[in-house]
Amino acid sequence: MAFRRIEKTGYPPRHWSLVGYSASGKSTFAAQMAGPILAIDADGRFVEVVTPGTEVFTLTENFDAE
Description:
Blueprint: H1 26-31, E1 37-39, E2 56-58
Parallel strand pairs: 1-2
């Protein structure tokens, strides 16, 4: 029986949900995570804290978009 080397290919998938009061830092914390990020952004301000180049998806009211 031979030994097989196990190599880690990346981080395991994680699913996070952040809940808190207004202006408590939820969006700022989420924007620092590795992408892709699905932001359910009720006030439309997530773009203010996201790092350029991070892959971010958001819900839209226009269901015919792309």
